[in-house]
Amino acid sequence: MKKIGILGGTFNPPHIGHLVIANEVLFSLRLDEIWFMPNQQPPHKHKTAGATNGDRYAMVNLAIQGHPCFRTEPVELKRSGPSYTYETMKILKEMYDDHEFFFIIGADMVEYLPKWYKIDQLIKMVTFVGVRRPDYSHVTDYPILNVDTPMLDISSSMIRKRLEQGTTIRYLVPEPVRMYIKENGLYGS
Predict the structure, then answer these.
(1) What homologous superfamily is domain 2-151 in, according to CATH?
(2) Fewer beta carbons within 10 Å, N or C terminal of the chain?
């Protein structure tokens, strides 16, 4: 049985923080692969701005190129409406019934778990992996594996803001992602 980590997000744009988290979880839990899963429309966020679904998918592929255990999973981009993890995992479990899934979430989402759609059914389908962050509680009534990762204070919103202001994002995103953003004029670059 393959052990697969799922890292969902808007990836608007993907940055080195995403890659560090994925790599640390991969090795800490001895997983076989990490699947990066761009969301269609996360229920807890407003519509993604600045890049199309195609752009975000392309940037994730550029960000992970060369890592033998990383791949992009487009299942949520093929659906319409809000991306509820429960619905997505139902689809993935049907497609890959011989896989065990580990769903990676940040500490901000650990606190939010009681509000997740069909959380009681979802925790029977996946193992949640919480990535620790300062200033967030890691306490929850739900079963979670916690993984410590190096703290990188980088966010997609910070990168978009820097681009709007004409500030450098070099080394905050992988170089192929930076070039894609520049070549496609994303985020006011």
Answers:
(1) HUPs (3.40.50.620)
(2) N
